[in-house]
Amino acid sequence: VLITDLTIDTGVQELLGKAEQENIETAFQRAKEQEPHCKFGLTGVCCRRCLQGPCRVTFNGNKGVKRGVCGATADQIVARNLLSLIVEGTTPHVEHAREILHTLLETAEGKAPYEIKGKEKLISIAKKLGLTVDGVEIDKLAQEVALIALQDFQQQSGVSNWLRLRAQDKSIETWKKLNILPSNAHLEIANAINKTAMGCESDPVSLLLGIMKMGLVEGYDGLHLSTDLQDILFGTPRLVKTQYRMGVIKEDYVNIAVHGHIPMVSEKVLEWSRKLNNEAKALGAKGINIVGICCSANELLMRQGVSVATNYASQELAIITGALEAMVVDAQCIMPGLAQVADCYHTELISTLPNIKIEGASHIDWTPEEADKMGEEIVRRALAHYPERDQAKVQIPGGTVEAYAGFSVEQIVELLAALNREDPLLPLIEAIAKGDILGVVAIVGCTNPKVKQDWANTEVAKELMKNNVLIVATGCSAHSLGKNGLLSPAGLEYCGAKLANVLTAIGQANGLPALPPALHMGSCVDNSRIDDLLVALADRLGVAVRELPVAGSSPENHSPKALSIGTFFIAQGVDVHIGVNAPITGSPLVEQALTANKGEFPVTTDELFGGKLIYEADPIQAAQTMIARIIQKRKALGL
Ligand code: BF8
Ligand code: SF4
Within this chain, do residues 548 and 416 fall inside the same structural domain, yes or no? Predict the structure, then answer.
């Protein structure tokens, strides 16, 4: 295999060459070793739910065994497996939300060394929750908000508070009719696992509705709750400029990479790196340099302007630069293979969450109360490793790319207010109505070693921009765009003239050369921000979210989280494209229900919710399919 077929990131290509020379294995090679993939697994018809199996049933609809030992059919097995996968996507985000909830609560009660930086967000959320705000101290208010959030993990009936806070009334009506309104995130997760257990639910339609319900748990008590409480604790992101690519790792600094998702960990590491910066100078370095990987990168980038080394598929390669003193990880998307790579260098791999230990890593516990102790210990260990760095092994690919980020909804509205102070959303709506902006597509999700890294993400984005579609981005896809100049005003060269004019006008009204063609809205939990933007636009227009000319796209999805997030958006009536197929094609029923492709199965998510799943590996075709749907939705709106 040619290295240039694995990734379009030239820095990663260079490091893959170094890995080969040093005989170090990475995910890119291991992905090839797994080929060809088992068709039963790929199509979702392998069941391991009990010890009478594992059972594999036919995946081509005619030949082979039609039922498992218990009598389960392909439709039943695929639907059950998909619900399991969606639960595994949702649960890490719900855990993430629970961790931030407890941190906020302990901070409000004076037990944890964090500070409530997002006072405005706190007040606006408290008001929306119906709390008395006037004359109430900030800590008291934060405690009240956190306790209302806690009910979403405790109440045995009623509807999730965060869903009622953030969802459009029109959507709530739809979900109520289908009886899929969730109450308590933990209860819904337990309920879904119970459904999928051997000998429990086998009605594929009910399982599919369970999938949609899990999408709502993901959306409100995963994504929205995490973002809202993080903004309260760490502040709402504002426009920042930063740098992308491996070149952000600096040879003459003590380098610490933060990788994972939980900003309570990465913010503390950053804080202590600033406090102990002079100690690095005493060692002969110029200072301490924090770089980000995956969504920890997004969190620190959005709020602190920290630069981004790389995204998911190439996380191991950051260590292969030989210049990382430590890599700090917390949860989600942490490859176990990192430990093996770190072993070849002086880099210390450090895990932090009490419930998530990594074989071969050292561990320093993060708890809200002990967060400072953790931050200081991590930075001190990195300092201690600096003299151990083997200069002969250091190779940092040169070059960085400028990027803008920090586009929270609050920031977008503020930028638009420069054009219309009384009605900031109006200029955006007018641009959409005139067709200067054809529609909005969110490019979200991962990179996946099965796909040439960053290629599909950037190709989909470029094809859409060319057709005057405004791009918003999150997750590792946003990193793909950042590495390739699409988060910078320089990327306007890829836009259609109409879109470029709009972005230039908004930028210049704010003293910038232009806005970039893709607006970076944050981490994967920050897909909530995209949802907030859609709800704000729909409310302003007096329509339902499902009527908006918008879509979501995850061209290089790998994580079940991308699927649970996608489910959330389909439930709102937004089409979702994936470039790597989900294991559903073994069941015509499940496939038809989600993709609305013609078949005998009568009920589709498109009919029930207004959104469907689009599977398309070819990026240009995917963009065209989304554009066709956007045009269809525009016409229905009379545009
Ligand atoms: O939550 S985009 S590879 S890091 S799953 Fe993972 Fe996918 Fe990256 Fe962030 Ni999101
Ligand atoms: Fe086989 Fe049924 Fe057991 Fe699945 S639940 S492994 S299909 S017997």
Answer: yes
